[in-house]
């Protein structure tokens, strides 16, 4: 039985977390799940154990999702083909296939070789606690076949050799009345260090004197730091003034330039777009003004070059008077045919009245 996919749908701190180990056809089929402390490695291992053997009655991994909502799924590669199943935290049936139909527990247990959850953990779920507990059981000649299998899987089956080595290491650390052990060497080093301490130790009066000197030195250092900081501030102020002098000169120059415009308003009460339009109109009017000034100058020059005939100028008044008569004559000429038609109509009307009265025309 090979695990192809493990899905922590709702377990521990995980929601819909998927570990895809592939179908095993791409060379090596050895996988490592790694991460920092508290990343969820142990949680992933416990989820896999739940998938194989079911949830516990007192579930410690229901801190994010309630126990009734926990769910772990997976896909196993079996000789007869892939098996997809899910495990729920409830009484039987708690094992479901891909379509949600209930499966018996032996659907998984038949492929575990009869290993109980405890034996499976001891053999295949090695951690610090398991190794340490199993080692103690074997060292004390305790445990059943599962613990012995654990010792073999952990590589500590040859316990006598290991115990001999450990005894030798313990003897090298300490033996009664021995002078070559590590503890004896440390004692000699400790004695040498005690001698050095006694040589370098000082009396209470010397310690007080040194403490007074230290306090004075600390105070002198504090005063020197304050003086240094004060001088640094003065230096920075002087540098700032030095940097500001050219700007002060420039400021005075600009103040002199804007002095003639002191009466000008600080800002115009118009929109920037209107100002642009006014500047455009101003440019157009200035161009028109220049053109008209040129035309006036040209006309003035032409006028100065003229030499009028005085006799003809005197006829101007007469021509003006005749112009009025000409206008009246033209109007009368236009109105005369209408008046003649009106006169003819009146005469015809009179002739008709005379005929009716039997009088001669």
- Spatial shape: elongated
The topology string of helices and strands comes to: EEHEEEHHHHHHHHH
Largest sheet: 5 strands, antiparallel
What's the N-to-C terminus distance? 150 Å
Number of strands: 5
Number of helices: 10
Low-confidence segments: none
Structural class of the secondary elements? alpha+beta
Approximately how much helix is present in the residues?
Answer: 55-70%
Instruction: Please compute the radius of gyration using only Cα atoms.
Output: 60 Å
Overall pLDDT metric: 86
Strand-residue proportion: 5-15%
**Oligomerization status of the protein chains:** single chain
Give the strand order of the largest sheet, numbering strands 1, 2, ... along the chain: 2-1-3-4-5
List key phrases describing it:
5-stranded antiparallel β-sheet; 361 residues; 5 strands; alpha+beta; elongated
What this model shows, in words?
This protein is α+β, with helices and mostly antiparallel strands. Helices cover 60% and strands 10% of the residues. The chain has helices spanning 41-53, 106-109, 117-124, 128-139, 145-153, 159-173, 182-200, 204-258, 272-305, 310-357, and strands spanning 2-11, 14-20, 71-78, 81-87, 95-97. Strands 2-1-3-4-5 form a five-stranded antiparallel sheet, covered by helices on one side. The mean pLDDT is 86.
